[in-house]
Amino acid sequence: MVINRNLLVFAFGFTLVASVVHASIDNERKPYIVYMGEARGAGISTSDEHHNLLLATTGDESIAKSSKIYSYGKSFNGFAARLLPHEVKRLSDEDGVVSVFANTRNRLHTTRSWDFLGMPQTAKRRLDIESNIVVGVLDTGIYVDAPSFNDDGYGPVPAKWKGKCVKGANFTGCNKKVIGARYYNLENIDVENQSPADLDGHGTHTSSTAAGTAVKDASLYGLAQGTARGGVPSARIAMYKVCWGSGCSDMDLLAAFDDAISDGVDIISVSIGGDSRSFFQDPIAIGSFHAMKKGILTSCSAGNGGPYPGTVENVAPWIMTIAATSIDRQFTTAFKLGNGMKSTGISINTFSPKKETYPLIDGARASNSSGDYYGNISACDYGTLSSDKVKGKLVYCLGSSGQDYTIKELNGAGVITSLDAPTDIAYTTIIPGTTVQLKDGYKIDEYINSTKNPRAVIYKTRATTMRAPFVASFSSRGPQLISLNILKPDIAAPGLGILAAYSKLASVTGYPSDSRYSPFNIISGTSMSCPHAAAAAAYVKTFHPDWSPAAIKSALMTTATPMKIKEVDAEFGSGSGQINPSEAVHPGLVYDINMSSYIRFLCKEGYNSTTISLLIGGKKKYKCSNLKPAQGIDGLNYPSMHAQLKSAGSKISAVFYRTLTNVGYGNNSVYKATVTSPKDVSIKVVPNSLKFNRTHQKQSFEVFVEGGSMQNGTQILSALLEWSDSKHIVRSPIIIYKPSE
Question: At the top level of its lineage, which domain of life is listed (predicted)?
């Protein structure tokens, strides 16, 4: 998801999330997805299978034909169709069907960041392998003509590539950098530009963050100037446009996953999410599961529901879920009052003042004298102000909710807004603007009341340094709501104030009345952190092409940099810490997870044998009762350890079973365990020393966590397990959570 106040329609206006797309009238057909598990073998027509199912369900040949929207069959099996309620129930009862769920709309989650992560342009690379890596991006489309996608010096398209480049309005084709581009609009909604072209800018930004080529002197009107580049600048990009002005529908997301897996992508980046759902009623969980089966890791944004607990999205354990953190740069905008008072606020203001000072007024004094309005005049709500009183003036408003657009419409010269709590998000304003703390707001108010001719000036934004990293306020927090003993988010990456490529088909703010168009833009959101992590995974994969998605994810998690600035929500905000791609190349040990482990985990989570057999495919039938039960409180060989107590008064008691695989190059390595924990908790690691004699050797251990009931006021206990052989440190956070009473 992108955090950009000026794209509120896209970032927060999706009122249809987790709601049925069409009216809920019992006799009206609504779009549903019928998910049927693993793809059928070669030579089997899934389209015929789907038609026959619909025919048996509806009892009418013409209805069966007209109701089907789309068949999935390249990478998994299923179809989208318009169904009546009784047909949904009948299909749900079919033996070959895993789930039937209503099509919903999901929301987008929207320089220097790679240097801050310890990955300078001079970082060691395997360019011969990196140039064959294809990063698949599911997003709003792409602007191929952006400088970040220049293909000078690129060799032929990788021979493995099976994808397509679909041309259309404002999109004349691909190149050797952007090698694939598709778009999806299965509901056939009325949209502008039926093509992979990016009319929003979000998809261009995320794509270039992951794999954009290096562009010198990149900036947004001089702000954040430097070399903009992706984490794997030699890699190729394939865009799958699934988001339009009304959101990103389930059926389009599944179609994109179906194609991307079949096309031959190596990593998938998805800066999209919605309300938590069970794994196999969630298109991103379904798509990423089948990607994982083919050796493809999916990186997903954690969501922008922070700082509130329990808001994290994209929580399936085979997904790498990414929180957003800061880098050591912030954007501050100074202002000066006519009495000489100077202070700074936070914003992205690209405008330099044309006058020494401007007349200053507040909302109350600029009110519409007719009184025919609803809203708060002090907050400068839409319709409350008079154009005659605002014209040519700077306006001071309480709160910060997009007043810059309102003031521009009234021909104002600029806006100063105030917040009663600190903020870390710098929004781009359509006119000169800054957001200040309320204490400065009081001084502005006092000044306006003290003189007959108040004046002020807002200066152009400057980039300044700050202490970092910390978890961005908007980044969604755990605990998750689906698998209660799996810690999410997994890891954190830069997502605050990120400069990257942008589409020249969209203005800087997204407003049609904004005349600024730039090849680069500064945006915040977990949408921005997600492609950072996807690129880091791709970077690790270039050194270890044979590693599983779980091994790559483990390497990134266990080598992550612990947060310098810890919030009260601890690892529920940052997971294992901030990514450190260079260290992840040589993690020493990894927590790997194979398919049989996932099967046992799903059994533990309550999925039945029939469902699991459909998920895995093939002739072999699985019975949970015949499998070795998943061990421990979480039932999975996960790089982090997390336990939720059953009730507020429960005593702490959890066991974690783990297996580490040696991926170091030396033999006869001895790793010793060190635990850092609160005094109220006893943590024992058995054994506390592991010896590895060869590469790929596995060694198992158990972690016993015991303690009394957690004291009133304490909900989170945070500990850390570190395995070290003096060359490597393999870190795993241990988190105990007490639910509210």
Answer: Eukaryota
* Phi, psi angles (nearest 5°) of residue 690: -125, 130
The confidence score (pLDDT) of residue 466 equals 84
Three-state SS at 102: strand
Rounded to whole angstroms, the Cα distance separating 589 from 730 reads 7
What single-letter DSSP state applies at residue 197?
A: B
Average pLDDT for runs of 10 along the chain of length 741: 47 31 60 94 81 94 95 95 95 94 88 61 79 96 98 96 96 97 95 92 97 95 94 97 94 98 98 93 96 98 94 97 93 96 95 96 88 81 93 94 92 94 89 95 95 96 88 94 96 95 96 95 95 97 97 98 80 95 97 96 92 84 89 97 92 97 88 94 97 95 95 88 96 94 70
Q: Are 466 and 344 contacting, i.e. CB atoms less than 8 angstroms apart? A: no
Q: Are the CB atoms for 218 and 111 separated by under 8 Å?
A: yes
Cβ neighbors of 344 (< 8 A, separation 6 or more) are: 332, 333, 334, 335, 434, 436
Beta carbons within 8 Å of 548's beta carbon, 6+ residues apart: 295, 592, 593, 594
Distance, CA of 260 to CA of 289 (rounded, Å): 13
- Note the pLDDT of residue 13: 30
Beta-bridge partner residues of 428? 348
Here the tokens at position 722 are 């570190």
For residues 298 and 279, the answer to whether their CB atoms sit within 8 Å is no
Nearest Cα to Cα of residue 532 among 29, 197, 108, 111: 111
H helix runs in 585-640, sequence order: 595-604, 609-616
CA distances to 321, 457, 590, 700 from 637, in Å: 17, 58, 10, 10
Q: What is the C-alpha to C-alpha distance for residues 326 and 332, in angstroms, rounded to an integer? A: 15
Please tell me the distance from the alpha carbon of residue 348 to that of residue 239, in angstroms, as a whole number. Answer: 28
CB 658 within 8 A of CB 590: no
Structure tokens at 133: 């890596």
Strands 243-244 and 247-249: antiparallel
Eight-state DSSP code of residue 428: B
The span from the CA of 540 to the CA of 734, in Å, is 25
Transcribe 342-355 into DSSP letters: EEEEE-B--PPPSS
CA 717 to chain centroid, in Å, comes to 26
CA-CA distance, 320 to 65, in Å (whole number)?
A: 38
What is the per-residue pLDDT for 40?
A: 83
CA distance 236 to 289: 23
Catalytic residues: 139, 202, 527
pLDDT of 618 reads: 76
Looking up tokens 């808001």 gives: 311
Q: Element (H or E) spanning 581, and its range?
A: helix 581-584
Cα–Cα distance measured from residue 536 to residue 552, given in angstroms and rounded to the nearest whole number: 9
**Distance between CA 267 and CA 319 in Å, rounded?**
11
Classify strands 342-346 and 329-337 as parallel, antiparallel or unpaired. antiparallel
Please say whether the dihedral angle defined by the alpha carbons of residues 135, 138, 514 and 426, taken in this order, is positive or negative. Answer: negative
